[in-house]
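#lab-general

N.A. 3:47 PM
ok so I finally got the sequence cleaned up, no stray characters, all 228 residues accounted for. can someone with queue access submit it? mine expired

B.Y. 3:52 PM
send it over

N.A. 3:53 PM
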Amino acid sequence: MLVTLVRTVIIFFTLIVVMRLMGKRQIGEMQPFEFIVTLIIADLACIPMADVSIPLIYGLVAILGLFILHQTLSILEQTGNFFKFVISGKPSIVINKNGVDLKQLKKNNLNVSDLMDSMRSLGYFSLDDVDYAIFESNGKLSTLEKTDKESENNSFPVLIIVDKKPVNDNLNKISVKKDELLNFLKKQKTRLDKVEVLTVDGNGRAYIKEKNKKYSVVSFPLKEGITW
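B.Y. 4:20 PM
back already:
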């Protein structure tokens, strides 16, 4: 038992030194390779602590080896954009002046719901609250607020159409039938197979983004008594 305790103390202080040398970034600010290195180091630390049959030096060498790998990749990142993009990727502009960019979202294995979740965490509830939204290479969302943004959002926008497909659960939630949705699109001089994103809030304010067109904000005819 005493041997296990001593091994644990040695590895613990080794990890403190290594993590301090790696920098002070929080988990949410780590680049992908930094997060992977951190996970592997944590796993490697557990093995020699739990299994006294494994020489302690094996665990220490593996941890220090990963630290050297981390430092090497960090230096390569600083030599130029090529290595930075290869190792950590590059930011993706998922909302621009024209609206939501589904192509960029798909490149990052994201959907409009993921984008709206991230925006809500920053205090933005409508897709047109910002002029630009950028998913950084570490997965963090950065936004540039729209200068003429509405002062308050007192209703929660729900997704009605995503990538030319209706979201049936949300249609049921706002008591809108598919033919009523199609009639609304017809009045807007568009069709279901052209609409990439459509959201509607409890005030009937609709955000509609057609493929290869700038988004627009129009009024959606909600039935009386429908609120959320």
